[in-house]
Amino acid sequence: MPPSTPRTTLDRLRTPRRFPKFLKAASLCVLIAGLLSPLSQAVAADTSTAVAANDYCGGQCSDILPPGENGNATLAQILLNQAFGTQPSHAEDQLGLYGSLPSGSSTLTDAKINDFFNDASFGVASNQVESTTKPGGRTDVTIVRDKKTGVPHISGTTRYGTEYGAGFAAAQDRLWLMDVFRHVGRGQLTSFAGGAASNQGLEQEFWRNAPYTEADLQAQIDSATSKAGARGAQALADANAYIDGINAYIDASDSGRYFPGEYVLTGHKDSITNAGTIDHFKLTDLVALASVIGSLFGSGGGGEVNNALSLLAAQSQYGVTEGTKVWESFRERNDPEAALTVHNGESFPYAARPDTPQGEALPDAGSVTQEPLVYDRTGSAATASATSASATAARTSLTSAKRGMSNALVVSGKYTASGHPIAVFGPQTGYFAPQLLMLQEIQGPGISARGASFAGLSMYVELGRGQDYSWSATTSGQDIIDTYAVELCQDDYHYLFHGTCTAMDKVERTNSWTPTTADGTAAGSYRMQVYRTAYGPVEYRATVGGKKVAYTTLRSSFMHEADSIIGFQMLNDPDYVNSPATFQSAAQHINYTFNWFYADSAHTAYYNSGDNPVRASGVDAEFPVWAQAAYEWQNWDPATNTATYTPASAHPNSVDQDYYISWNNKQAKDYTTASWGDGSVHRGDLLEDRVSKLVAAGGVTRSALVKAMADASLADLRAEDVLPNLLKVVNSSPVTDSTAAAAVSKLSAWVTAGAKRTETSSGSHTYANADAIRILDAWWPLLVKAEFQPGLGSDLYTAFGNNLPVDEAPSAGHGPTGSHAGSSFQYGWWSYVDKDIRAVLGESVQGGLSQKYCGAGSLTACRDALISSLKEAAGKTASAVYPGDDQCSAGDQWCADSIVQRTLGGIKHGKITWQNRPTFQQVVEYTSHR
Hints:
Largest sheet: 10 strands, mixed
Number of helices: 28
Strand order of the largest sheet: 3-4-5-12-13-14-15-23-24-26
Helix content: 25-40%
Distance between the termini: 33 Å
Radius of gyration: 27 Å
Number of strands: 30
Structural class: alpha+beta
Strand content: 15-25%
Shape: globular
């Protein structure tokens, strides 16, 4: 088994410059000695604890969640980590397992799976109990933590006690993170944690999309629980018990002085006198947290204004008729070559292009301006880094290219060696320290599950396993957000609503900050302001046909952030979920946009969730429409933001298909997603190609499916699926230029070797085929520009780039996921390049672009353009391609790609080698069923 923290795998992150003086203070040793004493919180282990009997997985369920379960650290532990790199117990003991899979997967067997994953069986063997806690001194709940990972196994004899224990355990492991994100959800992070530019951007990104008042948050609780009958009442009781558990830990850790040290470093607590407070949690905090998670991972749609701008640019370049054809060919709404999750040919029409669009409200050329969010900047809020962070936050929140992430590989028992289904699946939620997710097992009346939940929302397991079934999700991205053009009246802050001039509702947040030990950003402040209408928040202003309008975005989950709690409650209930049908029924109660997957000992299933609004006849979901009754969602009630939604049968769904793959690709035939890029080349193809071959051969095992996932996680999508045809064009005549010829030789050798981004050996921090990788990283944006900009023109090329980024290489800081985030190759022009190059080569293309772009269709001219751009790329040094950042020196290719656990607290972890893989991941194969 690989060591939990191999120093050949994990590089120490640099200590921020603001800490050394603090650490050199003469009182440091005294301070640490004084703070170390209260760290032990558990009573002696109860060795009578036995492995649960209600487990039907037969030891064949595994999971992993880096860096580690423990996301809390006292001030002493933080200081030791910053000074010497020491880690609190269980803070990173899953990072080494996770990071070593790329080098270890080639020799993987079923017996070795738990060399890289945790045993996810229910319960804890008596000789593996590390600690036993009776939270709050209660007799109806026990938290047992295991020696290997420190995961909490919560068992209760009453429902209240069980949920109280879940809240207590969540606070033990993630209190600081939970506090951070309840402030993010309220748009108040900078006042709480400091004014760093990244904090400013984070609160702005989320508050723009969910500008709720405290009354709004409470109203969502009341609505979600009151309309769900007995389950709603139970959810409310569960949430209250969960909150009580969190607050019990806050009180205990405060009085015992083992609370997270970040509260001292950010000025909320005094390390000497213990003065200061940690605010108790309340129910509305959970809704604020849910709004962040839902916005980040489960809200497909938006981008209609950008779509309109690129359509107008296309029509300006080519004329209305031809320009519309060009636009539609790049949009790829229903590309016949796209990888599908439901691949049996069944059609699930949604958001299709109407024959005769109605109510479109396209802006007048040059009239669109983005609605400002930030006002009255003072001090450090007015710096260039602060305004840049604001611009990035706005782009991220307003684009349809949402963070998709997550993948799933599920194979029917008909094609496995055992005859039982196998699944390898999980969400890519980024890499943070501490992690956004936390592991837990919950056993109590009406609850029996183990898996991952978002910190602060862990009253139920959100992704994981029950007694005889497992489930997981990927982001789906179908369109549940529409843009309306509200006609202004009286002034810029009144609009026509059903014929009446109505005032917009102004919601504000004023934040200010001063320097702290944790964040030395100079004092500053600003005010965030959002105008809300019945049709949602104002995002842009423009004119349409000369009339002044505000463009607003209406999301079906807006004011309904808490509704999904019922679906998660059902997934945790062993008396509810016992079959594919009951699993799908539970998923139907989740209003966020996700793909849900299921496996038990005999069946597999899939369901696409989300409140998909039924649009008025003739409305094209791609573009803004007039805010008029004729173009509203069917039966839309503006007071509650409810409408008629498409029935469950209209959502892509399936039971016992031969296999399912998902990597945020297209769900099914005729089911249009909001984001661009569902074409002939998608990262879903990396899974499709591998899993389909396994299924065709039969006898699939858990290790074989893990290998397929791991192999895809190291693949460069561009190199595997597009580069071979690019080389065909280049090699269509002898390459006589020595620079180009050398580059072609290196690229060809890389393709022959498998087109992976892998180290020469584990821990070498040097890629095999490093030159070829550097060349392609440099070449891709150059070749795309050389191929398409001459034909599209610079304006349309730029506009399409705003709809879909050109590239998302692992080292890229310009893609939707940013740098060092692992997740790569979701958004890019690989399908456009693939289709265009195949057309130039004279190969068959289904759903091709409306014209040929590379060399205007001439193979010779296309080849010249590619070779010219290749020569330029080959001449770029590693330092130019990988310019360095706060983590890496310029020219360090491996480091530029590497995954970093982005710090959300005081503890830092090491880098791991790049892999494009779920953050939390399960490997499951059930042997029996109830």
